[in-house]
């Protein structure tokens, strides 16, 4: 398997950012890490290994990026407004630095994004905010509102990064048309540590149905915990079902 390490100074974030690439050809899959996770965790926790059949066959390339969650939503004593602004700088890094990097390797204008846990928050939020850049989103066991980290605080910076807040009021046909031409997969279990993620998934499902936005909401069993062993089962299942 071709594996590459890349590091560059990000003008959008004002710091070095790291990422890894797995594979030599195929459809690009951008992977957001878990809560304050690192770019190498997808490999460390066996997720790259379960994607190996697609990677080795030249059907898929993984691009695993770093996070700045500890500087944004998870910053212990940060002001909620500043947390949201730092998150938006991270989004700018993804749009203006990571996406051009992927396109430079023969990538498509619209790609697939995925993530587990808080990476699923990034996945869904990025997909909803930028459907012209994402044709498929696969979100596993995610929260879909940053309230877990900032409480009840709300301003425009937070609102427009909280899918459960902004999506019910979204009526712009440009966004809705893109959603209806795209694929959104949201999966969650009902076992240990999944309670709040299940609640957010069911709320997201309700909103999507009300807006007539197509999505595959897949609720797994009561034995399915919020943990890597289950995510290692989920991602190959969806890659297969989606025809990668």
Molecular structure report:
- The protein has 244 residues and is an alpha/beta fold.
- The chain has one domain: Rossmann fold.
- The chain is built from eleven helices and eight strands.
- β5, α5 and β6 form a beta-alpha-beta unit.
Secondary structure layout:
Elements: E1 3-10, E2 15-22, E3 27-32, H1 41-44, H2 47-50, H3 52-56, E4 60-65, H4 80-103, E5 111-116, H5 118-129, E6 134-140, H6 147-150, H7 156-159, H8 163-166, H9 173-180, E7 183-188, H10 195-211, E8 216-219, H11 228-241
Parallel strand pairs: 3-4, 3-5, 5-6, 6-7, 7-8
Antiparallel strand pairs: 1-2, 2-4
Briefly summarize what is shown.
The protein is an alpha/beta fold and 244 residues long.
The run of helices and strands is EEEHHHEHEHEHHHHEHEH
Number of helices: 11
Q: Strand count, sense and closure of the main sheet? A: 8 strands, mixed
The overall strand count is 8
**Class derived from helix and strand content:** alpha/beta
Oligomer: single chain
**Highest-level CATH class:** Alpha Beta
Q: What name does CATH use for the topology?
A: Rossmann fold
The N- and C-terminal alpha carbons lie at a distance of 17 Å
Spans of at least 5 consecutive residues whose pLDDT stays below 50 are none
Which architecture per CATH? Answer: 3-Layer(aba) Sandwich
């Amino acid at each position: 398997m071709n594996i590459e390490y890349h590091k560059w100074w990000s003008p959008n974030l004002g710091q070095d950012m790291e990422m890894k690439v797995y594979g030599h050809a195929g459809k690009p899959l951008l992977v957001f890490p878990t809560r304050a996770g690192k770019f190498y965790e997808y490999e460390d926790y066996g997720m790259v290994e379960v994607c190996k059949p697609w990677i080795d066959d030249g059907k898929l390339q993984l691009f695993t990026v770093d996070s700045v969650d500890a500087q944004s939503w998870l910053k212990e004593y940060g002001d909620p407004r500043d947390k949201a602004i730092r998150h938006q700088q991270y989004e700018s890094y993804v749009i203006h630095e990571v996406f051009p990097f992927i396109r430079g390797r023969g990538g498509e204008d619209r790609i697939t994004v995925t993530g587990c846990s808080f990476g699923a928050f990034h996945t869904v939020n990025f997909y909803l905010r930028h459907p012209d850049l994402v044709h498929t989103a696969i979100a596993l066991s995610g929260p879909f509102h940053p309230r877990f980290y900032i409480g009840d605080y709300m301003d425009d910076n937070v609102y427009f990064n909280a899918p459960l807040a902004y999506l019910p009021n979204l009526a712009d046909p440009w966004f809705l048309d893109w959603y209806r031409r795209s694929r959104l997969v949201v999966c969650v279990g009902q076992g240990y540590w999944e309670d709040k993620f299940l609640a957010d998934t069911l709320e997201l499902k309700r909103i999507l149905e009300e807006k007539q936005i197509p999505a595959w909401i897949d609720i797994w069993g009561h034995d399915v915990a919020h943990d890597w062993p289950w995510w290692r089962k989920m991602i190959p299942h969806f890659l297969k079902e989606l025809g990668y």
